[in-house]
Amino acid sequence: MTHDATPLSQQYWYQTTSMDLRSLALFRVALAIALGCTLASLMGAVPLWFSDGGMMPRTDSLDLGGLAAHNLTLVTGDTALLRLMLGVGLMASFTLMLGYRTRFSLGVATLVLFSFVTRQPLISLPHEVWLVGLALWSLSLPLGLRWSLDATLGQTLAPGASDTRRGGLIGLSWALQWLALAGAALTIPVQDTAASLAIAGAIALLLALVSRGLLPTPSPWRWATPMLALGGALGALIAHQSPAALMTVAALAVIPWLPSALWTSLARRHATGKPVQVFYDQDCRFCHQCCRVLQDLLILPPGSSVKPAQDNPRAHALMKAQNSWVVIDEQGRATLHWLAGVTLVRHSAWLAPLAPLLALTPIRAAGDACYQQVVRHRGLLAGLLGSLPPASKPHNTMNGLALMALMLLVAQGIYVVTAPGPWFATPPGLAFTPFIAPPEATRARARQQGQWVAAVERVPGQYRDALRGDQALTYNLTPVTGAYADTRWQRYLAAAGAQLPGASIRRLANRLCGAPEDPPLAVNLEWIVAADTRTQRGRIERYRCVDGVARSQRQRLDGDPIDLRPGE
C-alpha cells in the first residue's frame, strides 16, 4: 500500500506516534546524565536522610506504608551500603549513556533512584520524582538502536536502514505525558497573575500533540512540535515558580520529539568531512569491536572505513613494529597509540573541539600509558564485552513493551507516590509528573501557617538559630527572616509542622543536642505563626541536653507575642 492510499486516520496515527532513533539516542545520553547527577547528589544526603542514624530511619518508612514500606533501601540502614547501592545506580547510568545493555542499565538506575525517592516521600524533591516517572516511561522506548554499544556490536540495523520508527502505542503513551502535565498545570491553584501563564502552557502542550499528527514527517514545520511542547511545559512550571532542576528534567522529555530534519541537516554538513581509515589486528576480536564502536559513536565522516591491518602493507608494518592500531587521515599521515584516537576525535561530528585538548603533552602521556594497559588486558576486556544481544528491535515495541506501558498507567492510577495529608496532596494523573506538589505551594502554606525556629543555647542566655546559619537571635519586634538550610529541610520541617507521620521534632532536638562539636545546653523549638507585623507562638518544644540526649521540659504556652530577629 502506498503512502497516498493510507487512510488519513492511519497517517495521523503514524505521524503522532513516530520517533527518530537518533533523537532517542540523544535522549538516552541526556537521561543517563540526569540520572547520574541525581544519584550522585543523593550521596551526601545518605547519612542525614536515609541511614538509621539520621533524621528518618527505616522504622519511619515502615510507619508510612505504601511503597515506602516495600522498598529496596529497607534492606540496610548502613551509610556505606546505601552509598554502595547508589554507586551501582551510577554505574548503570554510565553504561546507559554508552548504550551497553541499554534497557537493563536503565532499569537498574531507575530502580535505585525509585527506591530512594519512595523511601522518604516527605523529603523527596520534585525533580527526583519527575525523573523517576520519565525513566519508567522510557523503558518502553527503543533507546539503544542508534549510537550505542548494543546497536554497534549487536548488528541490529542494516546500513542505510530508516531512522524513523512508528511508535504505535508506545509513542502515544509518551505523548500522554504532555496531556498529564497540562492537566496538572491547570489543577494546581496559582495566583491570578500566573493563572494565564499556566493556562497558556497547557494549551501549548495540547497544540504540540495535535500538530504532531497534522504535520508530515519531512516538513520543516515539524520543529513547531518540540518548541510548543518545551514552551508549554516551562510556562506551566514557571507559573508555579518551580525550581530550575524541575524545569530541566521536564525539558528532557522534549528531546524524543526532535524532528528528523535536524539530523538530516547535520548529516549534510558532516558529509563534507574527509574520511579516515582505521586498521586493527584481525586476530584481536576486542580490537575490531572497539574500532567499530568508535566509528559509530564518534560519527566519523562518510567513507571512513575499519579494516584489518593485514590487508594494508603499510598499516601492517606499523602495527607489527609499534604494537598499535593505525589510523591514516585524508592526507595519508599515519598515527599510532593515543594520537590515533585523537585523530578520530578530530574527525568526529560532535567531539572535534576536544582534539587539541587531548593532544596536549600531559594528557597524551597519560593516554599512552592507558593504551598500553588496554593492550595487555585486551583478552579480559573482550570477555567483558562478550557477545551482546541484539538491541531493542522495532517490532518489540508493539507487544510486551506496550503492555508494560499500560501496566504503568494502571499502577499509577491506583497508587500515588505522595505522603498523606493536605500539605502534600496532589491531583491524580496518568504519569508521575503531577505526583508531588510544586515546592512553591508547600512554601506558601508554610508562610501562612508558620515555620520552625530552632534556638540552641550554648552559652546561658545566648541563643542561635540552628536552622538558618547559626545566626544569633534576640527576642525583639521583627518577624523571623531567612530560609531553611536546604530544600529537604524545608519539606521535613513543613511536614513536622503539619504533624505528618515520619517527621519528628523530638528527633531534630536529639540531633541538635548530639552535636559532636560544641553541643548546646538546651534546645528551644518554636513554631512561629506570622500575624501582621508581629509573630506569635503557635507551639513550643523545649529540651535540656543531657549527655547528648534531648530531655523534654514542660512549658506553658502563653499567648504573649514574641518576635525573633538576627542579633548583632
Topology summary:
Layout: H1 8-17, E1 18-20, H2 21-43, H3 46-50, H4 58-64, H5 79-98, H6 102-119, H7 126-138, H8 149-154, E2 164-166, H9 168-187, H10 192-214, H11 224-239, H12 244-252, H13 260-270, E3 277-280, H14 285-297, E4 305-308, H15 313-322, E5 326-328, E6 334-336, H16 337-346, H17 355-358, H18 361-376, H19 378-385, H20 400-414, H21 439-449, E7 451-459, E8 462-465, E9 471-475, H22 487-497, H23 505-513, E10 522-531, E11 534-546, E12 549-553, E13 564-566
Parallel strand pairs: 3-4
Antiparallel strand pairs: 1-2, 3-5, 5-6, 7-8, 7-10, 8-9, 9-13, 10-11, 11-12
Helix pairs in contact: 1-9, 1-10, 2-5, 2-6, 5-6, 6-7, 7-12, 9-10, 9-11, 9-20, 10-11, 11-12, 14-19, 21-22
Key features of this structure:
568 residues, alpha+beta, Glutaredoxin, seven-stranded antiparallel β-sheet, four-stranded mixed β-sheet, 13 strands, globular, disordered C terminus
Description:
By secondary structure, this protein is of the alpha+beta class. The protein folds into three domains: 8-262, no CATH class; 274-376, Glutaredoxin (3-Layer(aba) Sandwich); 450-566, no CATH class. Helices cover 51% and strands 12% of the residues. The protein has 23 helices and 13 strands. The chain has helices spanning 8-17, 21-43, 46-50, 58-64, 79-98, 102-119, 126-138, 149-154, 168-187, 192-214, 224-239, 244-252, 260-270, 285-297, 313-322, 337-346, 355-358, 361-376, 378-385, 400-414, 439-449, 487-497, 505-513; strands at 18-20, 164-166, 277-280, 305-308, 326-328, 334-336, 451-459, 462-465, 471-475, 522-531, 534-546, 549-553, 564-566. The strands form three sheets. Strands 12-11-10-7-8-9-13 form a seven-stranded antiparallel β-sheet. The chain has a four-stranded mixed β-sheet with strand order 4-3-5-6, sandwiched between helices. The chain has a two-stranded antiparallel ribbon with strand order 1-2. It is globular and about 90 Å long.
